[in-house]
Design brief:
By secondary structure, the chain is α+β, with helices and mostly antiparallel strands. It has helices at residues 3-21, 24-42, 45-52, 79-85, 120-130, 157-163, 193-197, and strands spanning 93-98, 105-106, 118-119, 132-138, 148-156, 166-168, 172-177, 188-192, 207-212, 215-216, 226-228, 241-247, 270-275, 279-281, 286-294, 301-308, 326-327, 329-330, 367-375, 381-390, 412-419. The structure holds the ligand Nc1nc2c(c(=O)[nH]1)N[C@H]1C(S)=C(S)[C@@H](COP(=O)(O)O)O[C@H]1N2 and molybdenum atom (MO).
């Protein structure tokens, strides 16, 4: 076995032991079941190799998949043009305005025209006392897999909202960023004001984000400043933020709403494979690894179900609820977080982590988690492998929200060819 593989597995075990011990009595009980799980994963050379191939938990900023509208794409502009349009930290300006069509009553507006627009220095001043950081997976509602996983840092949006001194008729906040000088290319999103002012259900706040994985937010990721909405799909997290409107509209007025998207849908949970052999010898155990997106309802289990294509599926059970699903092993965090974090450490004070930099819960809600399993050897034939999550409420994927335009949760299926 390669030495790096041994180290990687040892890391996973060490970290998870430390983690469970830190939990006291409940942790001790969990620890008892841990060696079993660990052995199950560690006992086989093939699965060890598969685990070693897993991506790190955090995605380096340059490896994110990019979902950017605009012609040309704003982050491809020259440095000169970026400076001209306020897409650098030195030149960034945020206008905070009352919606001219449905005005909220505010005492102040921040505008370019009278030189009062909010700038990066003012944001950093707020950051001194108000900065927060939290892990979040960025996922496009219209794409099946996450774009990347990061620790996002910023100032709660409400801090800037209060500077405008709103007094009444404020029900919704909408915002957009620079695309180019053509207004028709604007890409807008919105939130009910209540979600900006308060953080229900232990969610992190909606932020004006300026750092990702401990580094200044790159132009590709929406820098200098983007919105990040913790529980939402990506289209709420507007990049190259330039305008914030306080409004009395009562409904969502997002650009994404025009494309039949369910714009109020929070992130769903789902499982996907990462690596498996597409062709395998008969009788040979099959190592499978994957990731799960822990949505608003998190993940309590990942399960797999393999069936010969020669066998018939029961009718009237389109989500395979009666199938013989088997639990896969949810992997504890690895000692290496990835993502190019400075010093490899989780930034201090990151929500969801304790003072030693260990996660308080695992899996973490609104984040990725990895899983692995070793399927028994099979006779020759073609098979379909499916995987699914069970959320913390006990809902099996794709329930409780199976609709495609509310975000991906369909059960993944892949083919495995077992040959003599
Ligand atoms: N200004 C602006 N912000 C935007 C977009 C855009 O086209 N323009 N795309 C959105 C969509 S649809 C998604 S899924 C996320 C993707 O974030 P990422 O490119 O950092 O991965 O950005 C959102 N923010
Ligand atoms: Mo998206």
């Amino acid at each position: 076995m390669r030495e790096s593989v041994v180290r990687l597995i040892a890391d996973h075990l060490v970290v998870s032991r430390r983690y469970f011990l830190g939990l006291g009595v409940a942790g001790a009980a969990a620890l008892k079941s841990l060696p079993l799980h660990a052995e199950e994963v560690v006992s086989d050379d093939a699965i060890q190799k598969a685990i070693a191939k897993l991506e790190p938990w955090l995605t380096p900023t340059s490896d994110f998949r990019d979902v950017s509208r605009g012609k040309p794409i704003p982050h491809s502009l020259s440095e000169e043009k970026k400076a001209e349009v306020g897409m650098t930290r030195d030149t960034w300006k945020l206008e905070v305005l009352s919606d001219p069509d449905k005005p909220a009553r505010v005492r102040k507006e921040f505008k370019k025209s009278d030189n009062t627009a909010f700038d990066f220095a003012a944001l950093m001043e707020l950051a001194k006392t108000k900065a927060v950081r939290f892990p979040k997976v960025m996922t496009c509602l219209n794409i099946g897999c996450p774009l990347g996983m990061g620790i996002w840092e910023g100032v709660p949006l409400r801090e800037v909202l209060w500077l405008a001194e709103p007094t009444e008729n404020l029900r919704r906040v909408f915002y957009y960023g620079y695309h180019n000088d053509e207004p028709s290319q604007m890409f807008r999103s919105s939130m009910p004001v209540g979600r900006i002012l308060e953080d229900p259900f232990d969610l992190p706040p909606v932020i004006l984000c300026y750092k990702l994985n401990g580094e200044w937010l790159s132009s590709e990721r929406g820098g200098p400043v983007r919105v990040v909405v913790p529980e939402a799909y990506g289209f709420k997290s507007i990049k190259w933020l330039s305008h914030l409107y306080l409004s009395n509209v009562h409904g969502a007025n997002d650009t994404y709403a025009d494309a039949n998207n369910d714009v109020d849908s929070p992130l769903k949970s789902f499982a996907a494979t990462f690596d498996f052999p597409a062709v395998v010898k008969a009788g040979q155990p099959i190592p499978v690894t994957g990731y799960a997106q822990a949505g608003i309802a998190s993940v309590s289990k990942v399960q797999v179900f393999i069936q010969s294509n020669a066998e018939k599926l029961p009718t009237g059970d389109k989500y395979f609820t009666k199938a013989p699903w088997k639990d896969a092993t949810i992997l504890p965090p690895s000692a290496e977080w990835g993502g190019g974090l400075p010093d490899g450490e989780i930034p201090e004070g990151t929500l969801g982590f304790d003072t030693t930099g260990q996660p308080k819960t695992w899996p973490m809600r609104l984040a990725k988690v990895h899983w692995a399993t070793l399927l028994p050897g099979m006779p020759a034939g073609k098979y379909t492998l499916r995987c699914r999550t069970i959320d913390e409420q006990g809902h099996a994927q794709p329930m409780p929200r199976p609709f495609r335009k509310s975000g991906h949760a369909a059960i993944e299926q892949v083919t495995i060819d077992v040959q003599v």
